């Protein structure tokens, strides 16, 4: 055994790759459980995975047991297997965890760690557990500090993720690559999009920035941040997926390469031509491979030779220049060859989103041609991006044999509705595993990290279970660790979550709601077209009886009578805000319908319109006060994070503009307005309420026959546009406006059946 380890180590050193080490997991324990640094022992066993991988890792295995001298021994065949074993002990035995928006609760571990009478063990059912969507880097992480990243990466490691995307800082390497070609500072930076919009520039959907240019300071700082991120990912035993050259280039490239084969990408979502129609350097052009080599060697020089897996998407919401089968095959063949020339072990990771999003273009022949250009199946890895609702792997015959990953997308634009598909997320990936020989991983591809954290946990845990997880027990155990630190957890919390499990989180009506919903309070007011939207992004149809949620609210609220310490528990505070938010979002519907019926009744009475309007105003004000008690639900958190990225006030204004614009108008003139809407304190009464007030006035002034949507929208825009540029959170203090407990005490009586 020892000899084998030494041999592995020697061969790893000879190959120039890093040997695996337990340093990452030991450091994680020191960070999160400093009092217990000496209480755990980590040891590699079995066929230990080496890094950087050339190909696929082995199935992960761990076991956790107690040593005679009272330590907790975690053994596993990779650093992530060790992290998964540690997590199992922390969650199942100590009932503690680390959470989005709440932070690490691992400091609640008891002074003396309970020993294990029976060892625990686990085996992953898939070699890969993937995480992130390219757009998560903008919707969620645009303004993250290193501290935010540290929490995120610990969350990922403990939950067994071994294949995270790592996009941060891309622009620096890209800039240097273009500069080497002879392009100038006047030609390259104007191509980049603003700090909150980089994801879509990376996809080739948009180019350039409105209201200011991406500054060098940003580009440099992000590059430095990425050094920390990739170093930590590697230390924890993950395989980072790094960017590369996609083909999207500043159009000025033709100055230095006059004969370059450059074509235009398509227009994206109604953006003005100056911001879209991005130039695409054809991969068959020899310059493409040259750029690829230059980029990848610069990237390796900066972050080390830490991966062979590269993220590369050419046609996300972007129509290929030609639908000719040979054309498509040549594009992917040349792209793949460019990667191989830069890194002989390269694997191309791509989203399968395009095949769903533009199904009319991507018929079976074209998909086969494009994927077929990559001759060796193992040189590619496809993300079946929205597997829980619109899987593409069946129709593409398992991506014609390419290895692929079953992903839960779950939400668009980090919208916030409570939502989940507990059945599909447990049953379908396991069915797929039995059916598709090239399925090699489960993953999370959310556009943003909203709430609903249990749905994300569920799929990552499913990756360690060969049969579908039984969700009733799962939710019960999850609640236990969620509210750690309370001594006992009142039964009401278990029953509140149980009623949500079988309703809110058991959506099976995919024709009405394929993903997280948004409340109509967040969308631009109108007299029709708001209720019952079934579009996948931002549908407004709620597929459960709203009374069930009201009752879950009461049950969970009264849990704090049983155990008042819950009012000090950050998980409880977060969840009560979230459930209250959804209850009010649902109430909003009936008030909206009253307003419209008041408007539609003849004779048209200002008094009845005003009465209905008052109810809407009350809901938005109440909602705002609830949301503003919690920084996770506050506009100010997002805006302050943006401003904190710089000490230069001019740049801080520009970053704040970006932050505001993404969640409201999304584009210089509202090109995809409200796509990434949020129920946040400061927005509810600072942005949405003023819009509704404009609407109320418009209704009062306008007879039914003269209703003019264009005229209404012009008025709304007169408010929406200057809001983008303001720098104070209108109508709401920057921070909590009262304690949640006293606000909810005042509300609970009125939250009955309606
Ligand atoms: C060890 O794992 C590697 C990588 O998955 C695999 O190629 C190899 O066959 C395994 N060796 C043994 C002895 O299981
Ligand atoms: C893993 O744990 C299960 C349940 O305790 C047990 O039945 C099984 O034998 C264990 N497997 C190994 C390899 O230790
Ligand atoms: C990287 O991490 C170090 C601490 O290890 C920290 O001091 C530094 O600020 C981080 N860099 C960035 C760009 O956040
Ligand atoms: C990465 O690998 C390449 C090719 O083997 C080598 O030339 C280069 O020096 C390595 N870079 C680093 C930073 O290790
Ligand atoms: C979820 O709903 C479906 C019906 O839509 C039902 O058959 C199933 O039993 C429900 N599952 C749970 C866990 O409640
Ligand atoms: C699961 O998703 C599929 C689409 O893959 C859908 O047809 C099916 O109705 C869903 N099942 C449930 C139980 O939601
Ligand atoms: C807004 O309402 C008008 C009038 O009913 C309707 O014609 C229009 O389609 C609606 N707009 C949207 C975006 O639903
Ligand atoms: C306003 O809301 C109350 C309940 O709070 C309801 O009784 C009343 O009918 C509503 N009025 C209108 C005009 O919608
Ligand atoms: C702040 O940034 C702006 C825009 O890049 C720049 O013009 C200005 O010189 C900077 N101010 C300071 C004090 O660095
Ligand atoms: C209703 O209010 C609007 C202004 O808000 C006003 O122009 C209109 O004359 C009022 N209608 C009646 C019947 O009072
Ligand atoms: C609706 O309003 C727009 C903008 O004010 C105006 O150009 C258009 O003529 C109006 N339509 C009708 C039918 O009045
Ligand atoms: C917003 O501010 C920018 C400068 O930061 C300016 O160029 C732009 O005209 C302003 N836009 C509006 C609508 O006021």
Task: Describe this structure as you would to a colleague.
With 754 residues, this protein is an alpha/beta fold. The protein has 3 domains: 2-123, 2-Layer Sandwich (Chitobiase, domain 2), CATH 3.30.379; 130-487, Glycosidases (TIM Barrel, Alpha-Beta Barrel), CATH 3.20.20; 494-750, N-acetyl-b-d-glucoasminidase (Four Helix Bundle (Hemerythrin (Met), subunit A)), CATH 1.20.120.670. 44% of the residues lie in helices and 8% in strands. The strands form 4 sheets. The protein has an 8-stranded parallel sheet. Helix 11 (325-342) links the parallel strand 12 (309-311) and strand 13 (347-351). Helix 6 (170-180) packs across helix 8 and helix 21 packs antiparallel against helix 24. One 2-acetamido-2-deoxy-beta-D-glucopyranose binds at residues 215, 648, 650-651. Residues 1-15 form the signal peptide. Residues 474-730 form the Alpha-N-acetylglucosaminidase C-terminal domain. Pfam families: NAGLU, NAGLU_C, NAGLU_N.
Task: Considering the chains and any ligands shown, give keywords for the structure.
single chain; 754 residues; alpha/beta; Chitobiase, domain 2; TIM Barrel; Four Helix Bundle (Hemerythrin (Met), subunit A); 3 domains; eight-stranded parallel beta sheet; four-stranded mixed beta sheet; 16 strands; 44% helix; disordered N terminus; binds 2-acetamido-2-deoxy-beta-D-glucopyranose; signal; NAGLU_C; hydrolase activity; Hex-like_dom2
What is the number of E strands? 16
> Strand order across the biggest sheet?
8-7-16-15-14-13-12-9
Second CATH tier, the architecture of the largest domain: Alpha-Beta Barrel
CATH class of the largest domain: Alpha Beta
Rg, Cα atoms, Å? 26 Å
Instruction: Give the CA-based shape.
Output: globular
The CATH superfamily of the largest domain is Glycosidases
State the distance separating the first and last CA atoms: 68 Å
Which small-molecule ligands are present, each listed once?
Answer: 2-acetamido-2-deoxy-beta-D-glucopyranose
């Amino acid at each position: 055994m020892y000899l084998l380890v030494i041999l592995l180590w020697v061969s790893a050193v000879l190959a120039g790759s890093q040997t695996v080490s337990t340093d990452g997991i030991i450091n994680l324990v020191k960070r999160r459980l400093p009092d217990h640094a000496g209480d755990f022992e980590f040891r590699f066993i079995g066929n230990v995975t080496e890094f950087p991988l050339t190909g696929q890792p082995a199935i992960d295995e761990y076991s956790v047991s107690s040593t005679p001298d009272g330590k907790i021994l975690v053994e596993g065949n990779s650093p992530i297997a060790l992290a998964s074993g540690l997590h199992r002990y922390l969650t199942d035995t100590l009932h503690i965890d680390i959470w989005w928006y709440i932070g690490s609760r691992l400091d609640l571990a008891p002074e003396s760690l309970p020993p294990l009478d029976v060892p625990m063990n686990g085996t992953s059912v898939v070699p890969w557990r993937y995480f992130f969507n390219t757009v998560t880097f903008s919707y969620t992480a645009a303004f993250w500090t290193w501290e935010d990243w540290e929490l995120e990466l610990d969350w990922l490691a403990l939950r067994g993720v071994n294949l995270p995307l790592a996009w941060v800082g891309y622009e620096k390497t890209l800039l240097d690559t273009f500069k080497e070609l002879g392009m100038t500072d006047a030609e390259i930076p104007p191509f980049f999009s603003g700090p909150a919009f980089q994801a879509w520039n990376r996809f080739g959907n948009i180019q350039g920035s409105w209201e200011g240019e991406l500054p060098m300071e940003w580009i440099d700082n992000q590059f430095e941040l990425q050094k920390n991120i990739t170093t930590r990912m590697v230390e924890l035993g993950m395989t980072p997926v790094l960017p590369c050259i996609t083909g999207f280039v500043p159009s000025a490239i033709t100055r230095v390469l006059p004969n370059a084969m450059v074509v235009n990408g398509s227009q994206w979502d109604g953006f003005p031509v100056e911001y879209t129609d991005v130039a695409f350097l054809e991969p068959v052009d020899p310059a493409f491979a040259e750029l690829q080599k230059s980029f990848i060697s610069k990237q390796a020089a900066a972050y080390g030779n830490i991966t062979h897996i590269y993220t590369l998407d050419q046609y996300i919401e972007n129509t290929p220049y030609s639908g000719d089968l040979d054309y498509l095959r040549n594009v992917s063949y040349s792209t793949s060859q460019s990667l191989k020339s830069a890194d002989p072990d390269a694997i191309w990771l791509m989203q399968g989103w395009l095949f769903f999003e533009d199904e009319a273009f991507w018929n079976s022949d074209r998909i086969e041609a494009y994927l077929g250009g990559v001759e060796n199946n193992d040189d590619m890895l496809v993300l079946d991006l929205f597997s829980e609702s619109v899987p593409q792997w069946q129709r593409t015959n398992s991506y014609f044999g390419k290895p692929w990953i079953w992903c839960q997308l779950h939400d668009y634009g980090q919208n916030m509705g409570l939502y989940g598909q507990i059945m599909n997320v447990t049953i379908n990936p396991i069915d797929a595993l039995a059916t598709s020989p090239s399925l090699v991983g489960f993953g999370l591809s959310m556009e943003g990290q909203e709430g609903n954290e249990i749905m994300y946990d569920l799929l990552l845990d499913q990756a360690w279970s060969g049969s579908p997880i039984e969700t009733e027990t799962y939710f019960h155990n999850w609640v236990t660790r969620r509210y750690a630190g309370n001594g006992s957890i009142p039964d009401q919390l278990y029953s509140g979550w149980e009623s949500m499990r079988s309703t809110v989180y058991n959506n099976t009506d995919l024709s009405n709601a394929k993903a997280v919903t948004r409340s109509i309070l967040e969308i631009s007011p109108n007299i029709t077209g708001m209720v019952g939207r079934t579009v996948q992004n931002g549908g407004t149809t709620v597929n459960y009886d709203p009374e069930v949620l009201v009752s879950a609210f009461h049950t969970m609220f009264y849990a704090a009578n049983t155990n008042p310490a819950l009012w000090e528990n950050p998980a409880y505070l977060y969840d009560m805000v979230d459930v209250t938010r959804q209850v009010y979002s649902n109430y909003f519907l009936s008030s909206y319908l009253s307003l419209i019926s008041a408007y539609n009744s003849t004779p048209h009475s200002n008094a009845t319109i005003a009465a209905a309007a008052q109810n809407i105003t009350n809901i938005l004000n109440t909602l705002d006060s609830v949301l503003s008690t919690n920084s996770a639900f506050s506009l100010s958190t997002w805006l302050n994070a943006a401003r904190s990225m710089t000490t230069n006030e001019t740049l801080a204004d520009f970053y704040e503009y970006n932050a505001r614009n993404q969640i409201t108008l999304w584009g210089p003139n509202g090109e995809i307005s409200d796509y990434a809407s949020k129920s946040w304190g400061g927005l509810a009464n600072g942005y949405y309420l003023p819009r509704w007030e404009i609407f109320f006035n418009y209704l009062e002034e306008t007879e039914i026959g003269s209703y003019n949507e264009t005229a209404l929208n012009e008025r709304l825009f007169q408010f929406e546009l200057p809001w983008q540029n303001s720098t104070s959170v209108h109508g709401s203090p920057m921070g909590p406006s009262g304690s949640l407990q006293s606000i909810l005490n005042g509300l609970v009586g009125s939250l009955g059946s309606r």
